[in-house]
Amino acid sequence: MNPLSRFHLPLLISLVITACASTPDTSPAPELLPSPVFPTPAAVYTAIPTRPPFQPGELVNYTAQSGDTLPSLAAHFNTSIDEIRVANPIIPQDASSMPPGFPMKIPIYYKSLWGSSYQIIPDSLFVNGPAQVGFDIETFVNSQPGWLKNYNEQIGDGPHTGADLVRIVSQNFSVSPRILLAILEYYSGALSRPETPNTPYLLNYNNPSYHGLYLQLVWMANTLNNGYYGWRRGTLLELEHPDRRIEHPDPWQNAATVAMQYAFSRQYSSPLYDQIIGPGGLAQTYATLFGDPWTNQQPHIPGSLQQPALTLPFETGKNWNYTGGPHTGWGKGEPYAAIDFAPTGVSECHATSEWVTAMADGIVARSMPGEIMLDLDGDGLEQTGWVLFYLHLATENLPQTGQTFKVGEQLGHASCEGGETTGTHIHIARKYNGEWILADSPIPFTLDGWVVHDGAIAYKGTLTRFSQTIIASSKSELKSLIQKDE
């Protein structure tokens, strides 16, 4: 989310601007409590069978899971896309997401220290997607005897109930509210014990910067997303525990389970970690609250998913600058789902008369200060189908929930409102069925034929169209200038 300095032709006057604060947290992990505040009674831990040491390149059986792509599978199995294609010639060259349930043969190259093969929950129940439509968080919390129903906390916009804090975090990070409630119950008896634990660190993240339930939930949801989308991208291939033990997630694992393994590996070592991620840990708590998650579960990412046609988010004939390559959609670190544009001639947080426009036909599913969700399937729900996220829209002319727009129509003005930023710009990202769709992926973020590509680090990267390349820059530079064609 990078702002832009004033751009003059033929003279370039470039000002280096600081990017908004959404880089990954690389500070040392704080001191942690030895166990959850109220550990849920768990079954006796039984070791999950381990994988054998396969021969290099040995073909193993694999059944495609919701959201799998060839690049991620190649990373998980320590192989290459080309080798997977040779073993599965039926896969088309333009394959995006793999069809769930599709049987595959994958050449594997063994790694030591593989983790548990036990799967905690399906991916479709991890995201705030179709399975969460109609789930009334407040009604559920109020039906339970635990302390959460009587909890209140003051955050930036006023006092909120415990149920409302869960809703806000679930909505912003697009993580299932049921997952957050199960974690709260496992850690602190939030739904079963009437007494509130005497600690501000209700999810055991002992960091003064994350004091209180809301920020503890923010930390947990952000950490879960870093695990989930790191596995999706094929970049998270190693977990390090507080005792420095290294673990490689099992290649057959699903993203939701790896997300939880990643989050809990940041806090715990064996044997407590093994209990939490096993059948007697969080999975047992979730099943007690909401039933067996594997019964009648439906994949949320279909095979061969394609993005609908989208246009650049500003008016035809206008010049804007590409100020941010792929970076976080929300929070810190993953998912690298968002990109940024800024109108030329605007520096710092000055107002602009330039219009942000609808990239496709849609209805506003949610309108909040500085942001909207534009739903493209017309049902008005941000948990289903394709949804476009616009962040840093000015309050003036901000669309309201329920308004409909045609592609190219004016949505509002870029600003510094909503989230942290040091300059006027617009931040855009995509979701499908509640899952953030990575900007550079087999389902590419494409705007008027311009295709988004990652850079070496967050905010870097390019837009390419045929032989043309636009390079993301936080400076006012010709290389980042892009015009929307007539």
Structure in words:
The protein has helices at 70-76, 81-87, 137-142, 162-173, 177-188, 213-233, 255-265, 272-277, 282-290, and strands at residues 58-63, 103-108, 152-155, 158-161, 239-240, 246-247, 319-328, 336-343, 355-357, 362-368, 371-375, 386-391, 404-405, 410-413, 426-432, 435-436, 446-447, 450-454, 461-465, 468-471, 481-483. It is α+β, with helices and mostly antiparallel strands. It folds into three domains: 58-108, Membrane-bound Lytic Murein Transglycosylase D, Chain A (Roll), CATH 3.10.350.10; 123-290; 319-483, Glucose Permease (Domain IIA) (Distorted Sandwich). The strands form six sheets. Strands 7, 8, 10, 11, 12, 13, 15, 16 and 21 form a nine-stranded antiparallel sheet that branches. Strands 17-18-19-20 form a four-stranded antiparallel sheet, with no helix packed on it. It has a two-stranded antiparallel sheet with strand order 1-2. Strand 15 (426-432) and strand 16 (435-436) form a beta hairpin. It is globular and about 60 Å long. 48% of the residues are buried.
